[in-house]
# Entry
Amino acid sequence: MQLLDGKATAEKIREELKLAVETRKSRGQKIPHLAAVIVGSDGASRTYVNSKVKTCEKVGFKSTLIELATDISEEELLAKVNDLNLDDEIDGFIVQLPLPKHIDEHKITLAIRPSKDVDGFHPENIGRMMLNLPCFLPATPAGIVELLDRYAIETSGKHCVVIGRSNIVGSPMSILMWRNAKIGNCTVTITHSRTKHLDEISKSADILIVALGKPEFVTKDMVKDGAVVVDVGIHRVEDASRRSGFKLLGDVKFDEVAPKCSFISPVPGGVGPMTIASLMINTLRAMDLKGN
Ligand code: NAP
# Structure
């Protein structure tokens, strides 16, 4: 069994990005600038946004954090999005999800200019992804593809099972795995909460991508010997034996599943760091495409 080490791979990508920034600076070009909008004070969202901002600093990007009150109106948030669309200094921006219930997330996503949509959630980017056209890929699936690529995982002709069909992970992930591309060309089965005999289906996977949001849901009986397993889930679970008072778990019961796998991504240190790395890659690309 070999780990799909997202932490080390993301570190390598950060070094590559740092170099890319230096090259652009030496040519008199601007440095990439990512803005992140956060609405309210949800602890998990704040942690995610902070690590995105911190990564910007590490790779030499500029970052702007825009913190807005929970009770901001949809109209005011749309106005903020429009300001960012029009701001030439900002190359790409994200609006951290989830948003408070009184704000329609789809409306906000639609308002983001596709050329600045570095989270890759706008329908134009999703449509272009479907057609295998240049676009910003959603950060988590893109990070997984990058990880599989850097570990030279053969995907062509393999059976890939994706557990979960969310708009940000499962659905785009399934598309990327069946596309006619270097990482792709799998036969894909996408499963969800109404799927019957999930264990039989998951056991037939050469590549199993798990994104259902339930701690340690996938057990050894659900995995084929020699499978490649990518665990997207992340859960903070109380653990009195640790000084922090909690531990992080994935959607896969790592200790019993890992010995059966050819490759497996751990939690933490697997998909999470790759998601942020992809966001940085998208931001650099957004700047390059603008021709700055
Ligand atoms: P989500 O929006 O809650 O979607 C979960 C999906 O799993 C749904 O499609 C749901 O089916 C399916 N599901 C639920 N229970 C199931 C079951 N018993 N059997 C089969 N399918 C089931 O979650 P998400 O946003 O995709 O996130 C999934 C996990 O990944 C979460 O733990 C999240 O924290 C994590 N995540 C990590 C990163 C990262 O960077 N590491 C990024 C994003 C998400 P239905 O459609 O039928 O409801």
